[in-house]
User: Which sequence fits this backbone?
């Protein structure tokens, strides 16, 4: 689960990490008052969307191409104008994809005097099964780009959970960033705070890009991106409250209501599968036969007819879907339940694309009977290979 920059900064503030003072604004009328509560003399107006690259992003119509989801204002009224200009418009950045994201909230904060910009992140490193720090002198930039062209400018190390964070970890970062004097001390303290937050709040990712050295020689978190382990959010009521469902894929949101493991993808073949492993294999074989999956969907073991019906409806609601492959290996999940769900869903929403069904396992004959005796137009498949070949052929012609 991701949160907005202003929410992340409020969390940082509550742990005593250095951030600028700021106000979130949801309606243009509130912008002037909000900006007026800040000191200035420079205000920064920042579009709040769950994507980075806002500074270099561009807005869509009207005035397509007008630049910047991060704008500097020299007066309160200018800040209010900028906020008004952003609210309700669609911002396209490198991370949003071409469709962009609608800006429903803006954050107005005090402008900082910047001497240097750094990159800093904490993340769960699957390689070492530990939490890793990643830092670089090249702040405000795409870290993937830095990793590609100048990998020597990135320092990364993991923290042994037995000892936890130690001052030497912080000093390593400080020296990499060529900090001196008081900033070294601030760095050691800040890194400890971030590590503590990361653990206590069950984060998956915490990115401060840029972390800055101000003209006054102090460290400050100028941007903040936080991702939390969705499976642990139930332990943190304060974090759960920060969820902004308008930032999520509506299909994924619908699926989560029915407790379906659904992830929207870019391809054209909708998949309904039971079991995460079989779902992965199904996606692989679709690719092998020259197409791309439109989603990952594991309906789980004990799915009911209603759950299957909802799952099917979510798949068919995706205009990208040009064909559907149902691939069920009935164990705990029974093939007749799947068949009933598919037939019920088709009855309710219709079927505008080819449908290949492969059923195997518990109650397979019963399942096939249900489908054969319905008037649903199905292409039957005998095994996974056969099913994948048939759906790709039906879609590609
Ligand atoms: P994004 O990563 O989405 O582009 P950032 O918050 O990193 O957004 O902002 C982009 C750039 O704008 C920063 O690298 C920094 O140079 C500048 N910036 C952001 N916030 C402030 C601020 N409060 N004061 C001064 N400059 C800022
Ligand atoms: Mg940034």
Assistant:
């Amino acid at each position: 689960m991701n949160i907005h920059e202003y929410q992340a900064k409020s969390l940082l503030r509550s742990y005593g990490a250095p951030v600028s003072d700021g106000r979130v604004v949801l309606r243009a009328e509130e912008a002037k008052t909000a900006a007026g509560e800040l000191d200035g003399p420079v205000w920064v107006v920042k579009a709040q969307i769950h994507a980075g690259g806002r500074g270099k992003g561009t807005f869509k119509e009207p005035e397509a191409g007008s630049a910047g989801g991060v704008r500097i204002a020299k007066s309160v009224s200018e800040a209010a104008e900028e906020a008004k200009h952003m609210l309700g418009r669609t911002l396209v950045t490198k991370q949003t994809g071409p469709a962009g994201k609608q800006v429903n909230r803006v954050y107005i904060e005090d402008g900082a005097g910047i001497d240097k910009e750094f990159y800093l992140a904490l993340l769960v490193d699957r390689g070492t099964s530990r939490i890793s720090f990643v830092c670089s002198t090249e702040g405000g930039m795409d870290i993937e780009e830095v990793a590609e062209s100048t990998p020597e400018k990135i320092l990364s190390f993991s923290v042994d959970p037995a000892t936890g964070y130690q001052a030497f970890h912080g000093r390593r970062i400080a020296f990499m960033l060529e900090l001196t004097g008081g900033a070294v001390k601030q760095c050691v303290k800040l890194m400890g705070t971030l590590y503590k937050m990361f653990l206590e709040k069950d984060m998956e990712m915490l990115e401060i890009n840029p972390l800055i050295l101000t003209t006054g020689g102090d460290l400050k978190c100028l941007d903040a991106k936080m991702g939390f382990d969705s499976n642990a959010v139930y332990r943190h009521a304060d974090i759960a409250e920060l969820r902004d469902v308008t930032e999520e894929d509506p299909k994924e949101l619908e699926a989560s209501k029915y407790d379906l493991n659904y992830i929207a993808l870019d391809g054209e073949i909708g998949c309904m599968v039971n079991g995460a492993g079989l779902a992965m294999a199904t996606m692989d074989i679709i690719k092998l036969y020259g197409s791309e999956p439109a989603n990952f969907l594991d309906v789980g073991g004990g799915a009911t007819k209603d759950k299957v019906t909802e799952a099917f409806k979510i798949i068919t609601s995706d205009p990208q879907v040009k064909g559907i492959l149902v691939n069920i290996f009935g164990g705990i999940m029974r093939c007749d339940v799947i068949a009933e769900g598919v037939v019920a869903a088709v009855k309710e929403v219709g079927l505008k694309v080819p449908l290949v069904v492969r059923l195997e396992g518990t109650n397979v004959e019963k399942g096939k009977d249900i489908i054969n005796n319905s008037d649903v137009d199905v292409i039957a498949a005998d095994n996974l290979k056969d099913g994948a070949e048939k759906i790709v052929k039906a879609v590609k012609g």
Q: What stands out?
A: The chain has three domains: 21-110, 114-240, 250-396. The pocket of adenosine-5'-diphosphate (ligand 1) is lined by residues 20, 44, 46, 52-55, 70, 109, 111-112, 114, 117, 140, 209-210, 222-223 (CB under 6 Å). The CA atoms of residues 208 and 341 lie 46 Å apart.
